[in-house]
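Postdoc handover notes: sequence design on the structure in folder B. Input tokens:
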């Protein structure tokens, strides 16, 4: 008969998302993760197997809850520009940091994790590009640059924000990065 789990798996994954998002994968340990999650190290090994498996589980959950939900849960009444604005405030910062961390440390991770990072980055860029294109058709986003270039600009801004948040975890510096980028997208209003 299998042993009963001593913890809530979602709480452990949340702790792992935060932990792996803040520390290098090679320096991370199951013991430190167990301390952060307030569970026994043996329980982590029994449930997840090893550090890579726990990291993969944290990455999958992180991507699902922050980026996929933000993309798929678009309120239809929002304009394309408002959808872009909403996307920039929606992702949880520790989730975004974990995605960036996984991207930086891809050589230390398995191919599954690298594929998750690549697919997520591509999905985010596709979503942002589609919003830009729709906004261009509606006249609320400039048409002087192709939607693909503006989608890449938005993706770069998002990734930069994630790195900046690690250095300065306050809201103001992030807003100072996003505000001018979003302003560049707007079609000038003629008075």
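Designed sequence:
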């Amino acid at each position: 008969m299998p042993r009963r789990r001593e913890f809530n798996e979602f709480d452990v994954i949340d702790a792992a998302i935060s932990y792996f998002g803040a520390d290098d994968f090679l320096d991370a340990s199951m013991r430190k993760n167990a301390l952060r999650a307030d569970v026994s190290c043996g329980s982590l090994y029994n449930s997840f197997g090893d550090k890579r498996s726990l990291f993969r589980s944290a990455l999958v959950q992180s991507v699902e809850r922050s980026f996929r939900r933000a993309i798929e849960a678009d309120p239809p009444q929002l304009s394309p520009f408002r959808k872009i604005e909403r996307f920039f405030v929606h992702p949880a910062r520790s989730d975004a940091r974990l995605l960036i961390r996984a991207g930086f440390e891809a050589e230390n991770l398995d191919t599954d994790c690298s594929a998750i990072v690549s697919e997520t980055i591509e999905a985010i860029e596709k979503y942002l590009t589609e919003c830009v294109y729709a906004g261009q058709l509606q006249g609320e986003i400039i048409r002087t640059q192709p939607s693909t270039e503006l989608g890449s600009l938005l993706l770069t801004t998002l990734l930069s924000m994630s790195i900046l948040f690690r250095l300065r975890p306050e809201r103001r510096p992030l807003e100072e990065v996003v505000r001018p980028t979003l302003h560049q997208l707007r079609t000038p209003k003629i008075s």
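Context for whoever picks this up: Residues 9-185 form a domain with the Tetracycline Repressor; domain 2 fold (CATH 1.10.357.10). Don't rerun without checking with the PI first.
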